[in-house]
Amino acid sequence: MNEWGFVFCGVCLAGALGFGLWQRRKSRKLLERLDRMLTEAMDGDFHETDFDETLLSALETRLCHYLSASAVSAKNLSEEKARIKALISDISHQTKTPVANLMLYSELLQEETLCGPAAEYAATLHAQAEKLRFLIDSLVKLSRLENGVIALHPKKGPVWPMLQSAVRQFEPKARQKGLALQLEETAAAACFDEKWTGEALCNLLDNAIKYTQTGTVQVRVVPYEMFVCIQVIDTGPGIPEENQAKIFSRFYRAEENAGQEGVGIGLYLAREILKSEGGYIKVRSQTGKGSEFSLFLPMQDEIFQSC
What we know:
Radius of gyration: 31 Å
Strand order of the largest sheet: 2-4-5-7-6
Number of strands: 7
Largest sheet: 5 strands, mixed
Shape: elongated
Distance between the termini: 77 Å
Strand content: 5-15%
Number of helices: 6
């Protein structure tokens, strides 16, 4: 090979090397830009900007359009939640006074000396007003939970004060039915929102006392390695196996319980509360032998990161 051949080969080699470096730099800039776009999208700060199409791959173009659409969707979702929050607030505010008036005047009617069926009508009116109040309150709570309007704030603490408070509320109702409401003392601690977990527990106690005619309703705590289990055990009629998967559904009412008070929302609300704080709820029951509802609360901070 003559001198010109070596020169030509050197030029080709240098050109190839330069082209490779240029391609590498171009690819690196593209990856850096994609990384920046994704980072901004995850932080909620992404905004589509003007760019020279010849400098970007089709992948970058499609990704840019996708992230712009995602940003718009996130904004729309935030606005929709704000509208739902306002609607729930309006419903709660606008119905509070009429329902309170219904309760008041139905109670005043019951205090009067009524003849014939009028006394029965007044009692029915009061019962239906109470049912309406409970239903509206429950629906408002559910809507707030499901739409993120209410945020639970679980923190590590003993479960005993919550158990005492819940049982104390239902002692008069249990005593009126001749039931023994028992609470076993415990030193267990868990990661939970005391107000909302207490509401879930009260729903279980209310059901247990409502459906148990004789015997006991017992509340006890069983600590496990990762969860603390709060059990509500009754000696009621039990739940048929085919219905046990349905009882946590919204507004579910078994045919055999149609005559009982309630709207079929308490167990659903309890499940949503437990789910929102990293726990879960289970039932074990046998027809004619009572039921056992178990609330599982995370024991350690690692299970629920916000604790």
